[in-house]
Model the fold of this input.
Amino acid sequence: MAALTSVGETPIAAPAGRPRGMQAGRRRRLNTFRYVVFTLFGAFFLIPLLAMLRFSLEGAKLGTWSLSAWRQIASYQGSGIPPLLSSIEITLELAVITCAVMLVLLVPTMIWVQLRVRWLTRTIEVLCLLPLTIPAIVLVVGLGEIYNRIQRFSLSALMLFWIYVILALPYAYRALAAGLGGIDVKTLSEAARSLGASWFTVIVRVIAPNMRQGILNAVLLTFSLVLGEFTIAYLLLYTNLQVELYSISRNTPNAGVLFSTSFAALLFAFALLMILSYAGRGRRRSRG
Amino acid sequence: MAVAAAVDEVPLVTSSPVTRVRDRAARDAVEVRLEGLSRHYGSVVALDRLDLTLEPGQLIALLGPSGCGKTTTLRLLAGLEDADAGRVIVGGRDITRMPANKRDMGMVFQAYSLFPHMTVRQNVAFGLRLRRVGAAERDQRAIEMLELVGLAEHATRYPHQLSGGQQQRVALARALAIEPQVLLLDEPLSALDAKVRAQLRDEIRRIQLEVGITTLFVTHDQEEALAIADRVGVMRDGHLEQLAPPTEVYSRPATSFVAEFVGLTNRLAGEVRDGSVIVRGCTLPLVERDTPNGQVVALVRPEAVTMASDGAPESGPLVGTVIAVTFLGATSRVTVDLGDARILAQFSTADAAALTAGSRVALTIRPDPVLVSASSDPAVSVAGEEA
Amino acid sequence: MTVAATTKTGVRPSWAGRRPHAPTWVGTVPFLAYVAIFLLWPTGIVVVDALKNPNGAWAFSNISELGNPLVRDYFIGSFKLCLLSAAAGAVFGAILAYAVASGDPDGLIRRLYIAVSGVLAQFGGVTLAFAFLVTIGPVGLLFHASWYFDFPWGIGLIYTYFQIPLMVLVFMPAIDGLKVQWREASENLGSSAWQYWRYVGGPLLAPAFLGGALLLFANALSAFATIQAWENQIAYIVPQQISTAMSSEVGLSSVNEASLLALGLVIMVAVVMTIYALLQRRAARWLR
Done:
């Protein structure tokens, strides 16, 4: 499937060493093109975000400024029973659980397959990429029965993690596969085994640490996915962050807290990504 | 002119590709002059006021270690980069400011330059297509070029189906198809296997001679440079150390850098006295007669070190124990431990046949003129390795 | 680890220590089971349900229901929206990808754009609709676009917001794969910049471009949250109608309708993704 440029990854395009020049005229034209493009697209992407930010800082009277929308994040009651804050908490917990389950499920499996069951590689890959072809809106139609059973054990929205892991599979798989592809799994594991390590140790203490970048990528993508998930939660009648925001907007379309929360979530995800991007580079430098 | 008439009137099918390209090249075989070329990247000086002239039809090889500026020179000539100072003059015309796509030069890159989505024939015909040559004619010329490099039967294949050596031949055909004034080769053999390298090297030279095109060949492999060039330019840190025919570069290196870069060299402690240098008991003439007296390091070629003809004296400055014998085919290289130094000698294999590790041997140095450098190295003689 | 020669009876001997080993694929069972339960089973339910009558009998003729004019409208709506946003996203995304890729591989701009693309591609649909609402909606800060609530233009613009970053992520590896030698060789042989793009760069990037466009198309087909938050009174596209069918209280028949629509959607996505995979293989061969 597609090679996706992951965060923190530098392509092997330009050879290191002696700089390669370009004709001056061409470079000038290229740079002009680039700056025009960046300005236009930058504006396109920034303006809605800035508008959102402005609305989140809107005061009681039009045109005034106020931080009330931000302060309300913690206290807003919302339309239904769960206040906004609890839906934020639930979503964050959900994200953490999903990441954990995803890692525990995928990392050992992928390592094991690469080491001992290579003929299943293609199958695993297809299964992991299948959710791209069977979108959430389709899955949720068939999930009713399963979630009926789950709800006999627990009514908590945290149970959404079961299906969230599936949704995250395509992105996590690709990120982990990229991380796995960069190391010599076979040699490392044989060396560890010959020193007496159990398979558990091999996976957790030898291979996984060397896949750090891939794992971070996978975690990040999963996290973003859970933070932004709406469809399944909504149609299974659970309340998570996005569903709560949606129902608030149905009642109070311009509630400032909608924008402050959204903006905060976005900043959070972005900060994570930037950290990841620089963490990845630092690691590569020390190895090079 | 009879030749011009032949090209215009006679159907293309009867003039061979070599003849056509040669005719054009002979008519237009151009002189290439680089004057005072300079180029730097930030604080790194890649070229420092380089002056170089290629006579019409000559093949000049630029040789040197990484970063010496040879590739930069080539790229400046091709127009792929701009010079900070200096001029490029081809056939009497100053083309310094001319963009790359108008320079009428054929270039062969080190690797990866064939267009992967085109067949071999389409690749070779590409330059002709850009020049609006008709489809039938350009296909024909492409096939002729492929015959020139011996790959006509692969015309419908794609680059990824060819071996490295074959790809480079196609690249050569493609460069020549446009009948350029100058041929540029940027380390074309560096990415290939040793055996293929040697074969292709000779073929490139053969074709270049047949076609008679002015050629610049860049390489870091001295064997290549010495084998095929009319003149070799040894470069270091952005300037030319020596520009001379291969035999001269080898046997009369102008500087110690050239002596050590090209071929193997022994560095032996010696003393200059009145126009000669005394190295381990042998008196050798100097390349530079007026070197002042004093302690120096003399650069002696292994093949100048021979076995002493009179018996095997027990001791002497050139008596030692053989450490290793390296069989190279017709000759053998012998490393000898002289006690306080090591020396590398090269004999014919027949002469070296009796020697094994541990044999005692007495050597002498043939009185060829040697270069000396007033190096601060003490009497350490280490055979210079090929860069 | 070598296996000792088989014994006379042809039975494979156990390891020293006589511990019989299970076949190695057993290690993948947890993963396979998980995927089977939460991905394959719900999908199976959808497929089976789509082909059954309300009273439980098989009715393969249900498929023909997809030709029903009402149903067809939803598919046409989906198709229009997806085509629009995929085309716009692909073209603009490609331009942006080129601008980013042609710069310093390790530089800030590249990292920034990749991080931003990663976040925006996952940007929760609900939040995105809010952002656009306050930018060009009725009380928009920038201006009020009268066509904001028009289908497919208003929603198409919003879709483009997350389509472009996805295209950047998918298309950039292809641009990185364009070797600088091709450009230089082309120039050396006499091509102008335009001729290079026409004969070399363009054809080489075409499969990746089309593939990216298809991926964007499939991505848009599956989207639900954004359009739901944009305007939930009228169902324009298939996912919205699935949602309506699911939450309608007309008993079993609505479940069948949802399943049928879901099946139709999956088929559409599957076809698009298959073509995409084929194109990717071609692109990868040239641009590796």
